[in-house]
Amino acid sequence: MNAAGPKGARSPGSPVAWWRILSWQMYDFADTIYSMNVTSVYFAAFILAFFGKDSNAYGWAIFTANLAVAVTSPLLGAMSDVSQRRLPYLRIFAIITAASTALIGYAPSYAWAVALFTISLIAYNSAGNFYQALLPGLATPETISRVSGIGVGLGYIGSIFGLGSMLLLIKGESQYPLAFLITAALFFVIALPCLIVVPDFAPASVKARFDIVGAYRRVKNTILNARQFPGLFRFLIADFLYENAVASVIFFMAPFAKAVVGMSDSGVQLFLIGATVFAVIIGMIFGQVVDRIGPKKSVLIMLGIWLVTLPLVTLVRTPMQLFPLAALAGAGLATVWISSRTYLIALTPVEKSGEFFGLYSLSGKSAGVIGILAWNLTDGFLRPGHGEVIALKGAVWVMWLFVVVGLVLVLGLPDVRPTKANVLDRSAK
Question: What integer is the mean pLDDT of 58-83?
């Protein structure tokens, strides 16, 4: 049976029906609702209001979740490659995400709240790996970036929708528990079409295998035979370095804006909304740029944006000077995910895409930990002798150095594009 559905239902140049591709892209929309509502806004507010704990108190939970995802992702990805099934893993982790998130607001204690938050964060990030690993089965080599870019754009719309829906529905601290229940419902309902109608690599009659030992051997052999995959591990190291900068900017932009330029809470919200709007616009169009010029040049453009943006951030002195940089920040955020995801696919044999997206997650999650650690160490070293403003600006320059080293590594990578070897051939299905 043709995975594309009825004749005429395919999108131009795609082996899969447009509505199946849109269902996959809408998972990005659901994904960012969780990210905005749970990790960025309401969990910190909830534990402060109900348990008197600030965000520093659960930093170890975020570290634990990132570490767990980083360690397990390559193994889970390798297991999915054996049977060429992605959806069973995605469904399991999506369900766990929704269930644990819904329960956070009704936790009887601070310890239970953090435990449920940690479980939901691990499941959320693990699900995202299998969602991304479905991409090589949805598009042709010529349209992968376009499909991915629209997903990224919808994702940023999802973050605006998530925040807007909570502002309309949640009235005061007493309703914070309801925010998690609503977020879980929105996430699951919007993600559901992806879990049901997006075609997997192998038919449902092929059983997914859960073989930890076999997965470990598969990943071990990949690492030992790295020369068979030219540029892959160099790219993962480069991605690790420049994602350090991106993760840190996302995490510390609000406190930086308040401390360095005296921006108010409402000003920070406007800045973030502005950056998100530009991310939506760039996400919708940059995929076509990547398809035309190739992922290496696109990654270099993205790195160029950050090389300009970060120094400019350290020069601003007033909130009005910072606002124009929202456009550059938004463009930098959107182009990171589109260009990097396409470059990974171009370096990856399709039959090992689950494993390599797992290694990609290992790179990204490690960057999320190391980047924030590097920022904090720089801040802690400079602050006693030079003050808060100099310390924060110094941390931005350290992130800039990460981008520079990542750029040097990318320059040495092969200028490859996705080919038929990197995507699933559905012509015979």
Answer: 78
